[in-house]
Structures are given as structure tokens and as C-alpha cells.
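Problem 12. The chain below contains 246 residues. Write out its predicted structure in C-alpha cell notation.
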Amino acid sequence: MAPGRQIGVSLAPAPGPHQLLDPSQLLLSQRKTPKIKSRQTVVFADPGAERVDGPRSRPMLDPAVLAEFRRRTITEAMAEVCAERQYHTASIADIAARAATSRGTVYSLYRNREDIFLDLLDRTAADVLSLVEGACASAGGEPRARVEAALRAVLGLAAEQPAIAYAFLVIAPYATPASLGRYNGVISHLAALLRIAMSGRDGSNAWHEELVIAGLADVLARKARDGQLEEAPALLTDFAGLVAPL
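Solution.
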């Protein structure tokens, strides 16, 4: 270039796709747009309380609901373990493993193995009695229909939940004195419901119905030992015939 020659300066066009960016443009192109955290309303156990927090916040479970879920899971695991290993050889470690939880969680809810087993029996009794009462109420006013509805409910539940039925029918009468008391209480209560279903009135001399229920429990216990509780609904006709003439 000749000395003293002046060169005009002009703005260069925007670089093409294969041209290098100016360093200052490169820094600008790498600048990230700041992220704005979204506001999220999280509802807690108390419906009247709310909290505004970041995206990672999530609803908290009601402790009472969580405890009930854990109790139900642990008692069902207890039934399964007892059906496999019997009551006296079932350990807290076995029950916790079957419930997919820790021994610490089990001990936070129950004192010992018997405490779990009695809770299982109480839950089973509540389920059975509620089911029978509902079946009788929905069957109408004809005694035979109410009796069949009550027996169908009991036999169907035994077939659907064989492990729990085994725990109640086979283990409860012999596990502990307290479990025997629970067992006898349910037999007596079912007999009273059966008497009401037949006559429409409560009665204190329900010995005949109690014999029928005790006989049904004995037959179901034998089927539970033999692993044949799926056959329980087939007993409906025979046992309904025992009660109907009363």
C-alpha cells in the first residue's frame, strides 16, 4: 500500500453462517436469559393454610393418613407372614420386610408382634361385620334373602382375602388369650346378626345361630389349612339351608 494513501472505513455486513463473530458479539450471544422462578401454591394438611414456594415444593401428607396407610400395610404383611410361617415364628424383621418398611417404622406404630396381630384381628372384625350389616340391609325384608346375603358376604371375603382369613380362622383361636377373645367376640356378633336377619329382632338366646356360625368357621378353617378358600362361596347353599328353617 502506498504511503500516505487514505483508506475509507465502512461498516462490515453481518457475518454469514461460516464467518467468525467478533469477540464482543460472541460474549453477547452466550449471555443466558435469567430464569424467573414460578410461584406455586402448595396446600398442606390444614386446608386453611397455604404457602408460596419454589418449583420443588410439593404437598405434604397428613400424618394421620400416612400412619393409617402404614398400619394397614403392616397388618396385611402380618397376615401373609403368619400364613407362611405361623404366628410364633413370625418376627418383626419378617413383617417389616414383607411390608417394605423398616423395623423402626413398625416399632413406632406397634409395641410388639401381638400388638400387630390384635390390630389385624380388630380390622378384620370391623370389615366383616360392616360387610354383613350392609349386605343384610341391601337384601330387603325377606329373611331368606338376608341370610343368604350375609353368608355370601362372609364366604366371598374369605375367598378374596385368604391370608387374612387364615390368620383369623386358623391362628387367632390359638395364638394368644387376647386373640382368642377377639375370635369368640366376632363369632358371637355374627350369630346375633344372623338371628336379626332371620327374625328381624334382636335376641339374647342366639345359641343355634352361634352353632351355625361356629360350624361355618370350622369348615372355612379346614379349607384355609388346605389352601382351598377359593371354594368357600360354594358352601352358601348348604349353610343357608341350616339357618332357613329356624
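Discussion. The CA atoms of residues 5 and 104 lie 90 Å apart. Students who got a different answer should revisit the alignment rule from Section 12.3.
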